[in-house]
Design brief:
- The chain contains 16 helices and 14 strands.
- It has helices at 18-38, 56-65, 82-100, 112-123, 143-154, 163-171, 185-197, 202-206, 221-224, 227-240, 252-260, 285-293, 303-312, 327-330, 341-354, 369-380; strands at 9-15, 43-49, 73-74, 104-108, 127-133, 157-160, 179-181, 214-217, 246-249, 267-268, 277-280, 297-300, 316-318, 334-336.
- It has a seven-stranded parallel beta sheet, sandwiched between helices.
- Strand 12 (297-300), helix 13 and strand 13 form a beta-alpha-beta unit.
- It is globular, with a radius of gyration of 21 Å.
- The chain starts with 8 loop residues before the first strand and ends with a helix.
């Protein structure tokens, strides 16, 4: 108990993969600021890293870039099939919940850690808040879609980043008083670190000129797990790279498939000395933010990059048939082009040669989403 009989509220904040770090950082900061403004410990924030995606070098870089405190708990579950990973997280996390006795579980995004920890908390009667709730692609072949649907079904407090999410949650039977349109915490982080990222030396190290190059990211199984899909994608990207150099920070999963199918001939060695596709190692947050901010075009299958490119007002082509983030299309800089090589080539050449009309940033993507969430949580608890 604190002064005047007030009981502090313990919140378990869950991260499991690098996109989670970007989302949790402003929330932890906002909780700390709320405590300081209140002159008492209202929120006791406990950071739990499941280790779902864990590379010491990359995790350390992200934690340093985003000024995230060292995790209070590291589960170290590692990789595996979706079932194996989810089960391992649940077994390890149940012990943490029984030991910590939290007042609330706060989960972000749609990775396996989000689902697994929510299942455990729900069965133990722990209230759940889901940040980035309500996003739907309509494609249940995506593991992330299942994670989103189940996590939202279990959650007591739903924080929504775009208006489409409110409609989805109401259609699924959630009550209006559970749903809060608060904006996008990923954009909180982007705005906070954008100026710092501009001091990165990444463009110099790549020999890249601002607005004279593009970026590629590919990691979804539907794009990289079949040679008949990945091969044609790389072929058309190679054609686009004859116009401007394309930099490709290669996801470990994608790199494994490229090497397996002998597709490395599409790539050139760094630093860039002309047009072509140049692959790089995965980057830290600040370096990649700098690279995105100065790029002419981004080609991706990532959900988060659709949002970040919209906030940066950089044209983005999403190599998927659907998106759970429709506001990036209706208001932002994103376009769905699927995996048809002709569609990718046409859309890519148009942007490279003609650019894109000015777009706007969606409602409440203003850098203050975490503060809104924390004020709501204080009332909720």
């Amino acid at each position: 108990m604190t002064q005047q009989g007030f009981k502090r509220k313990k919140i378990l904040n869950i991260v499991g993969a690098r996109p989670n770090f970007v989302k949790i950082a402003p929330l932890i900061e906002a909780m700390g600021q709320f405590n300081r403004d209140s002159n008492r410990m209202i929120f006791e924030s406990v950071l739990v890293h499941t280790g779902q995606h864990y590379d010491a070098k990359m995790s350390d870089a992200f934690f340093a870039d985003l000024e995230i405190p060292k995790p209070d708990v590291f589960l170290g579950v590692g990789s595996g099939s979706h079932a194996e990973q989810t089960a391992h997280i649940m077994l390890a996390f149940e012990k943490i919940c029984l030991n910590e006795k939290p007042d609330l579980l706060l989960v972000v995004g749609d990775v396996n850690s989000t689902l697994a920890c929510s299942l455990v908390a729900s069965k133990l009667g722990i209230r759940i808040a889901h940040v980035e709730a309500g996003l739907r692609s309509g494609d249940r072949s995506m593991p992330e879609e299942i994670n989103r649907i189940v996590t939202d079904a279990l959650s007591d407090c739903l924080f929504v980043s775009e208006e489409s999410g409110v409609g989805h949650l109401l259609e699924e039977g959630k009550r209006k008083e559970q749903i809060f349109l608060v904006g996008n915490v990923m954009i909180d982080t982007l705005y906070k670190y954008r100026e710092k990222a501009k001091r990165s030396q990444i463009l110099k190290s790549l020999n890249a000129a601002p607005k004279q190059y593009g970026i590629i990211t590919l990691h979804r199984p539907s794009n990289v797990d079949q040679r008949e899909t990945l091969g044609p994608i790389l072929e058309v990207l190679s054609k686009l790279s004859k116009k401007i150099p394309l930099f490709f920070p290669v996801h470990p999963r994608t790199r494994q498939q490229i090497e397996k199918w002998n597709l490395s001939h599409y790539f050139f060695n760094l630093p860039a000395n002309g047009h072509g596709i140049y692959w790089t190692e995965p980057m830290g947050y600040l370096d990649f933010l700098c690279l995105m901010d100065h790029s002419r075009i981004i080609l991706t299958d990532s959900g988060g990059i659709q949002e970040e490119s919209t906030a940066l007002k950089v044209p983005c082509l999403t190599l998927r048939e659907n998106t759970e983030r429709p506001v990036t299309i209706t208001e932002g800089t994103n376009s769905l082009v699927g995996t048809n090589p002709d569609h990718i080539l046409k859309a890519g050449m148009d942007i490279i040669e003609n650019g894109q009309p000015e777009k706007k940033v969606p409602l409440l993507w203003d850098g203050n989403s975490a503060q809104r969430i924390v004020h709501i949580l204080q009332k909720f608890l």
